[in-house]
Amino acid sequence: xxxxxxIQNNARPxxxxxxxxxxxxxxxxxxxxxxxxxxxxxNPEPGTFVHLLVPDANRFYLRRPFSVLDCDxxxxxxxxxxxGEGTRIMRRIEKGRPIDIVGPLGSTFPKVPGKRVLALGGGxxxxxxxxxxxxxxxxxxxxxxxxxxxxxxxxLFVDGFDWxxxxxxxxxxxxxxxxxxxxVEFAQHEFEQSQVDVIFSCGPNPMLKAAAEFADRVGxxxxxxxxxxxxxxxxxxxxCVVLTRNGAIRYRTVCNDGPVFDARELVWKxxxxx
Amino acid sequence: xxxxxxIQNNARPxxxxxxxxxxxxxxxxxxxxxxxxxxxxxNPEPGTFVHLLVPDANRFYLRRPFSVLDCDxxxxxxxxxxxGEGTRIMRRIEKGRPIDIVGPLGSTFPKVPGKRVLALGGGxxxxxxxxxxxxxxxxxxxxxxxxxxxxxxxxLFVDGFDWxxxxxxxxxxxxxxxxxxxxVEFAQHEFEQSQVDVIFSCGPNPMLKAAAEFADRVGxxxxxxxxxxxxxxxxxxxxCVVLTRNGAIRYRTVCNDGPVFDARELVWKxxxxx
Amino acid sequence: xxxxxDISVTLGPVTFKNPVFIASGICxxxxxxxxxxxxxxxxxxxxxxxxxxxxxxxxxxxxxxVPTGALNSIGLENVGLEAYIRDxxxxxxxxxxxxxxxxxxxxxxxxxxxxxxxxxxxxxxxLELNLSCPNVEEEALDHGRxxxxxxxxxRIVKERVPDRALLVKITPNVTDIGEVAKAAEAxxxxxxxxxxxxxGVDFDLETGKxxxxxxxxxxxxxxxxxxxxxxxxxxxxxxxxxxxxMGGISSVDDARKFFIAGATAIxxxxxxxxxxxxxxxxxxxxxxxxxxxxxxxxx
Amino acid sequence: xxxxxDISVTLGPVTFKNPVFIASGICxxxxxxxxxxxxxxxxxxxxxxxxxxxxxxxxxxxxxxVPTGALNSIGLENVGLEAYIRDxxxxxxxxxxxxxxxxxxxxxxxxxxxxxxxxxxxxxxxLELNLSCPNVEEEALDHGRxxxxxxxxxRIVKERVPDRALLVKITPNVTDIGEVAKAAEAxxxxxxxxxxxxxGVDFDLETGKxxxxxxxxxxxxxxxxxxxxxxxxxxxxxxxxxxxxMGGISSVDDARKFFIAGATAIxxxxxxxxxxxxxxxxxxxxxxxxxxxxxxxxx
Lengths: 274, 274, 299, 299
Ligand SMILES: Cc1cc2nc3c(=O)[nH]c(=O)nc-3n(C[C@H](O)[C@H](O)[C@H](O)COP(=O)(O)OP(=O)(O)OC[C@H]3O[C@@H](n4cnc5c(N)ncnc54)[C@H](O)[C@@H]3O)c2cc1C
Ligand SMILES: Cc1cc2nc3c(=O)[nH]c(=O)nc-3n(C[C@H](O)[C@H](O)[C@H](O)COP(=O)(O)OP(=O)(O)OC[C@H]3O[C@@H](n4cnc5c(N)ncnc54)[C@H](O)[C@@H]3O)c2cc1C
Ligand SMILES: Cc1cc2nc3c(=O)[nH]c(=O)nc-3n(C[C@H](O)[C@H](O)[C@H](O)COP(=O)(O)O)c2cc1C
Ligand SMILES: Cc1cc2nc3c(=O)[nH]c(=O)nc-3n(C[C@H](O)[C@H](O)[C@H](O)COP(=O)(O)O)c2cc1C
Ligand code: FES
Ligand code: FES
What we know:
The complex is a heterotetramer, with 2 copies of chain A and 2 copies of chain C.
Chain A: E1 14-25, E2 30-36, E3 49-52, E4 64-67, E5 70-71, E6 75-81, H1 85-91, E7 98-105, E8 116-122, H2 126-135, E9 143-150, E10 168-172, E11 179-180, H3 183-193, E12 198-202, H4 205-218, E13 222-225, E14 241-246, E15 248-253, E16 260-262
Helix pairs in contact in A: 3-4
Chain C: E1 9-11, E2 14-16, E3 20-22, E4 44-46, E5 63-66, E6 69-72, H1 81-93, E7 99-103, H2 108-118, E8 126-130, H3 147-160, E9 165-169, H4 177-186, E10 191-194, E11 198-200, E12 203-204, E13 209-210, E14 217-220, H5 225-238, E15 243-245, H6 252-261, E16 265-268, H7 271-274, H8 278-288
Parallel strand pairs in C: 3-4, 3-16, 4-7, 7-8, 8-9, 9-10, 10-15, 15-16
Antiparallel strand pairs in C: 1-2, 5-6, 6-14, 11-14, 12-13
Helix pairs in contact in C: 2-3, 3-4, 4-5, 5-6
The complex binds flavin-adenine dinucleotide (2 copies), flavin mononucleotide (FMN) (2 copies) and FE2/S2 (inorganic) cluster (2 copies).
């Protein structure tokens, strides 16, 4: 069974100025950034992202991509982990300040009517999978079970989120909350308990690779959301490519062909594992 | 009568981190920046300046020079006019924030025992002349009369300063406060009323040039504090030179040979008048 | 209130409605940037450089940010001449977009082939010979350093597309850029495009290796502005054909400096990623202040 | 707690206690920066380039800030060889400062004269031939673009100062910097210093004229870092003598990148104006992590 070609990019991106509605620390490294939703902005589908200009930047900064974590008529929320200078600056930006974004951008996690989905979110990789979960309608899939893993309890945000999904379970590498072990081990464990037709995953590359090997082994279609360094985010500059094989070997763009790909089309050994 | 060679540079500069003690708007364009005085910093003489790093600067900024307006054991005060990006950023810097300075730097307005000084301060050019006035001892000069001119009332800071000088008078171009006319016209007027042995001046180049012509005409020695774009401020890079003639024509540095010069040594026609 | 002064510019046989273009490699084949930039309002889009055969390009990472700009190592990934003509060029035909097709090739015969195939087509106003791509394995693709070659190729292509604007894009990575520009002029170019990226490198402190697999990359963005202005100014004193200036433009003021340096038109690259309104703002400023043009050639 | 590993470096016949120098033109004749930088702790100070006769230099403005660095147009103002020997060199003699004397000249005979006059003196450890000053009227002072000249001059000078470290400072403004570096190596240089400033220009929008009277200036600071790393890396693959790398260093990490690119020592310039602790911090980092040295030559 394959869903190749069901991954779509229907995003109609615009360039907008938003306002910071909330900027809340969730843990030492994670924070929730809630922006006003521009009136004209089209509805972001789960999997899509916004390309955000680091504010107050006197120096040259490329925009930074962040998946949509949630969205309603008034707001767009992002789940951000402090990684480098850009995410450090953004962490300090105050309520009421303007933020310049381009979005929504990119492809979406597919609709899989009648299928039972197991979604694996590692770290901030939670964002698009959480969004799929809270946003989905009955016709999008049969069931949607989300496994959410992090290094330890302190990086898991079990409070303050709307976990009204078919079920969410947690894992931590150190066992401080939920299943002890990495999220793919957890998936293996879950898989043995219940039926799974499709796997979605998002997180660090090593996790995605492990998930892909697992999905291959168990013979289940697997859709994965990738990260890469981006410049235009419109599929124009060819900066953000990954090697794919679907018949021919070719580079496809994470920004525009992705970020969601059919895992079996990716040439995994070429993906950086750091 | 000449005082050539009485201009000295005894500054022993250091590199310090200060704290903003106060940052107060004085008018639309002017503000007072009070910094904590570093314990080890030597006493700044009137005429000397500090070389200040624009804070929060992600991009490349050269340091900006500012004359010392006042100084006590605890604080150094600067009088700043918003001119470009650097002074705009500094205007917003909050109390308690660190500021990186090098100083004190440069030459001083000379001590002229027994002489009657007429000091002409235009705009922020007030700073070193005010400092000379409040700091001077009886042996430094006989009398010290300060004329302080600005475009209009709103750029004159008559309140909040300690005007305990032998006398300070004001002029405005538009006559909204004090004498109506430019400061050199005012000087001319004052000169006719009372005895003057020495003139000090600091302000925009066109004013300084007019003052120099006036001093020449009336045959009175004239010491002037110049501005120039600076890099090292230590006399090392030769960026900040002005053409001087004292016998030979040569370039001297505003940062280290100046900023205070004997006006008759300057080749005025080479000084930019914009 | 934007006044609508005529700010059209003429490059050889062709007039463009304004002198603000998007640089090659930034907007793909033209269409890709249209969600953010109304491309029909531009003077032109210069499409991604194409070669006779399609190219896979370099392995990622291909883009690297530094505090003063970006380094890239795309490696001329492109769909190839045939697919370009079949799939890409037609997309823009109905849109009244000013298209300049950027091409690169290794050998004289390839240039002839490209020019012959493009000559009879419509849907584009100009050709830009990219003789200056630093990011590729083949030394031959960087032959913009050799004046005789530049002159010969320019002549060969111009003969075949006499009714299009032929721009020759030259590299800043030479001792004397004026000499190369002169060669293009002698070959019959309608304009010089300058500059392409400056060769640069950055290293990963963790691994002790260059960021890019190929090592060096092309440096663009604000950090190259003083260099680009210098090169355009040098070229303007060496040739009398128009110059299309670029390199580090991130504001209306930056664009104005290129006109002062002697450019007739400008291209915007890297900074469009940051500010998608940049071309629009420059066009508006020029409509309002047509005197910004023709301020050229400060001596 | 700073550990005190040996981080001395050897350039030809001379050893310097550490590989962190101040670049020529930044610290005057050495003494001027001493209120802020304890110059005896440096590997060396390279003094302002001197010429046989004193030079007045260019009219101000001489320095211009851009968001990515600075442009300068000093024009080699200097006191001349005689005054330097008489007034400046002795100032540093007692201070146990590593001095490298930077010299420039127009003709072979002048190089001979300078070398002959300096050869018998003490108080300095090395000579740096500045064959790359872009800010002067005389084309001849920028003859670092000519490999034969570079080789000949290097040989002539080295013969006269066999016991000093002879560095040849070359210009980035050439097509092939490796070729020039090879010429210096062939002439017997003990090291290559690179890079000097990159030619650049900026314009005043009010007047429509260049900021500097001479027009162009030398671009330095953070914006040239990727270019400087590139040039040093190119040189390291062209020659086997040591390289003294510089251009845009504003942090310990920037300095480390030069060692990765193949430099044996580094010089700090423009950013010292902003951060007077920069050399001290780099030296401390190297004492703590001597492995930062000798990470050279990423392929
Ligand atoms: C489609 C997409 C969706 C994303 N969604 C989220 C999200 O929801 N939440 C979140 O926190 N992050 C997300 N990211 C990652 C986020 O964009 C980066 O963490 C961020 O750009 C880092 O910026 P910085 O300035 O803090 O770090 P930098 O200082 O730029 O970088 C820190 C380090 O990370 C590397 N790096 C930077 N960007 C990337 C990247 N995109 N991929 C891999 N390495 C990179 C740099 O090379 C550097 O080593 C997403 C990325 C993509 C492509
Ligand atoms: C010895 C000395 C003492 C000074 N004392 C004071 C003081 O007490 N109070 C005060 O407000 N200012 C003083 N200045 C001037 C002050 O240094 C500049 O106004 C300031 O550097 C401008 O910085 P900016 O970033 O706001 O402007 P920028 O954006 O850097 O510049 C704005 C404009 O001013 C020009 N400019 C910048 N610096 C100078 C300069 N030093 N001379 C001439 N033109 C310049 C620029 O070219 C530009 O056109 C002094 C200058 C010197 C040399
Ligand atoms: C990602 C990227 C890809 C580029 N690809 C091309 C190209 O295919 N052909 C070309 O002539 N120039 C190419 N360039 C160079 C630009 O057209 C332009 O000359 C250069 O980036 C300088 O302008 P900027 O500083 O405004 O970006 C590319 C630049 C970048 C950043
Ligand atoms: C104001 C100034 C003056 C300079 N004078 C000289 C000089 O006299 N001789 C020389 O070889 N290099 C000179 N240089 C170049 C520097 O030594 C150095 O090569 C260049 O600035 C790059 O380093 P940086 O980016 O760290 O400044 C000068 C640079 C500046 C900024
Ligand atoms: S970032 Fe430009 S193609 Fe993806
Ligand atoms: S600023 Fe360097 S000599 Fe004055």
